[in-house]
C-alpha cells in the first residue's frame, strides 16, 4: 500500500489520484457564508451541498468561513490549519462500500472564544450574505417547555452589559448586524440548520427578544431586514472513530486527522426567503418550498423521535448502535409500532408524501450495518431532544385520546438511565447532557417518589397533572426498577 498522503492544498493533486478532490479555485479569502458550529453534520450536509455546486462551477464566491464559539472547537481549528480546511467525507453504503471524497467548500475557520473581533469582522464583511448555524438543539438558550428566551444565562447578561464583548451566538449576531447597519450594508440571512420545528421562526423570536433588551433600535432594524428561512435538514452523521481515520489511511492512502462519515441519504428542505441572495442550491437537489412546516414535523417526530426511542431503550438493553437495535426483531417492531400508532396519527397529511414509504425508508436507513451510529450519540443531550421530538407527541395524543404507551416506556427508561447510568448488565453508561446533574438528582428520587423525574416542568410541561400519563408512567418505572429486562415490557406491548 502506498504511504498515506497528508491531506492539504499542496498535496491535493496527488490525493486526486486516490479519490475525487475539489476542482474549483479555493484561493479566495472571501466567504459568502459564515457558519457557526462546524461539527460533523455541517460538514456532511451544507458544506457538501455547496461543494457539489462549486464542482459544477456554479458558486464561485460562496465559500464557507467556519466559526467556533466553544473551547472544544480549538481541536478542529488546529486540524484545519494543518489541512488548509480540507477534509474527507466518507459515505458509508449498507453493502460495505465506502465512497471517499475531499470537500473544499470551507476556506477559513475562526475562533471567537478569546478575541471576538475576527468573528464579528467576518460576519460584518460585505461578502457575507448568509450566517448559518448548527449549534445543536440545546444551543438556542430557551426554555424547552415555555419556548421563552432564558435571560438568566450569565453569558447573556454579560452581553447585555458589554455588547462589544459577545460570548453567545446572540451577542455575535447583534454585534455584526449593528456594524452592517451602521456601515449601510444589507443584513445577512440567518439560516438555522438544527432539528427544531420552525427553526427560523424560533430564531427570529429569540434574536428579536435578545436584541430588544440590548438595543431596541437595532431590534427594529433586524425585524425589518433579516430573513430567517425555516429549514429541515437530514443526514445521519455518526461520530468519527479512530477506525475511520485508520480506514482512510489504509484503504485510500490519505491521512486526515478528522474525516467525517455519513449515510448516503441526504435531504434539505428550505423556505426560499433569503434577504441577501443565496447559492443556486436547487441545482444540487435542495428542495425550496413555501412552507417547510410539514416536512420538519415529519422528520422530527419520526426520524429523530424514533432515534431516541431506540437509543434510550437500546442503552438500557445494552445495544451499542442503532443498527444493532434494528437487527433485534423486537426493537424493530417496537420502533415501527411507535411510528405507526403514536407518531403518525398526530402528524397529519403531508401533500405529496407517502408517510408509509417514509417510515419504510427510515427502517432501511437505520439498519445500515456499515454506519454504526452509536446509541451514546443518540442519547447525548436527550434533555434538549426529547422535549422537541417525543414529548409533544405524548401531549398531542393525550389531547385526542391516542396511544401513549410506547413513548411512556421510553420516558421511564430515560429516568432509569439518568438515575443509574448503567445498562441492565450493570455496565456503566457515560451520560452526556448539559442537564445531567439535574436529571440525575430528579431521577434518583424515583424510589420514594415515582413521579419525581417528570416533575421537571421545563422538560415535561404539565404531563405531571395528566392522570392517564402518570398512571402509565408509574407502572413503567416500577417495572424497570424492579427488573431491567426491558425487552419483557416491549414484548408485552406488541405481538411478534
Ligand atoms: C439524531 C440526529 O441526534 C440525534 O438524536 O436523531 O442527529 C439525526 O441523526 C439527524 O438529525 C439526521 O438528520
User: Rough shape?
Assistant: globular
Which parts are unreliable, with pLDDT below 50 for 5 consecutive residues or more?
none
Assigned CATH superfamily of the largest domain: NAD(P)-binding Rossmann-like Domain
Cofactors and ligands: D-mannonic acid
**Tally of distinct domains:** 2
Q: Class by helix and strand content? A: alpha/beta
CATH architecture of the largest domain: 3-Layer(aba) Sandwich
Number of distinct helices: 22
- Strands side by side in the biggest sheet: 6-3-2-7-8
Beta fraction of the residues? 5-15%
| Largest sheet features | 5 strands, parallel
Classified by CATH, the class of the largest domain is Alpha Beta
Rg computed from alpha carbons, rounded to a whole number of angstroms: 23 Å
DSSP E strands, number: 13
Mean pLDDT: 96
Secondary structure: helix percent: 40-55%
End-to-end C-alpha gap: 49 Å
**CATH topological fold name of the largest domain:** Rossmann fold
